[in-house]
């Protein structure tokens, strides 16, 4: 009896020992798996997430989000919307907002978000190194990611580019009923006006706006691409557009857009005076951010050379990082002088610009 009892005890001990070894083996495999990489060298670790509100809707951006996640293991949750609606949403959500980052087009909108206390300061040596001072907020609450020039597009067969070398030339008697441009509600035009106020004074801005209204070929409607198409169609001879629209038209899969763009040339205005107007798409860390460390990593990633090259090559925007050359198409348009002002001033003069546009009857 005693022998049978001892044998039973030994069997129970053996089973328990084998079970423990099996559990240790499973735990070791799980631990090793969480730190391994897959065949494509993509990180499998779950290193957290960030929540991004963005007014940009480009395939380029989607590819960059994926690359960032592959490199860091940080998931990018994207909420897209219209720029001003996203600002309103951030304001409505307040501190409870899950948004960590806000991306929008135009320094005027970034200033709008900052002035409503929706963004917070970011101290990053890498961002300061990669993004020149003129393309970032004076208090480091937003940073430029890409830049675009606001240029004059003209029909090659109907306009001599030597006669439209400045923004002021658009207001001459010779260009009456020839100018196509977006509405006064468009932030790009508001910022263009704000730059005139900052560099040349309010009186000049008023005179220019009055002259443009006098010379409009039609009431403003549509976006920048629509203005370019209308020039090709003969509704006007001259349009004011951002450069990346022109680049996207030339590289469109729609042959009609390509054909329209090929009928146009562009002029970088004011090369002998104040320079051509420049604006940006930019990013800010929200005041409500719950994932601040990961969010700053993402901001820094977008300022690096790889991301800057991709913005330029696929969306035809100029890099803000001075170590990155523009895409070949952009370089083919030539070098140009930029307006010399910190883009924060575009937001600071936005209200004055809107008042002038309304005063002169710009619809």
Automatic annotation (TrEMBL):
<feature type="region of interest" description="Disordered">
    <location>
        <begin position="24"/>
        <end position="46"/>
    </location>
</feature>
<protein>
    <submittedName>
        <fullName>Fe(3+) ABC transporter substrate-binding protein</fullName>
    </submittedName>
</protein>
<keyword id="KW-0408">Iron</keyword>
<feature type="compositionally biased region" description="Polar residues">
    <location>
        <begin position="24"/>
        <end position="34"/>
    </location>
</feature>
<dbReference type="InterPro" id="IPR006059">
    <property type="entry name" value="SBP"/>
</dbReference>
<dbReference type="Pfam" id="PF13416">
    <property type="entry name" value="SBP_bac_8"/>
</dbReference>
<comment type="similarity">
    <text>Belongs to the bacterial solute-binding protein 1 family.</text>
</comment>
<keyword id="KW-0813">Transport</keyword>
<dbReference type="InterPro" id="IPR026045">
    <property type="entry name" value="Ferric-bd"/>
</dbReference>
<keyword id="KW-0410">Iron transport</keyword>
<keyword id="KW-0732">Signal</keyword>
<keyword id="KW-0406">Ion transport</keyword>
<feature type="signal peptide">
    <location>
        <begin position="1"/>
        <end position="19"/>
    </location>
</feature>
<feature type="compositionally biased region" description="Acidic residues">
    <location>
        <begin position="37"/>
        <end position="46"/>
    </location>
</feature>
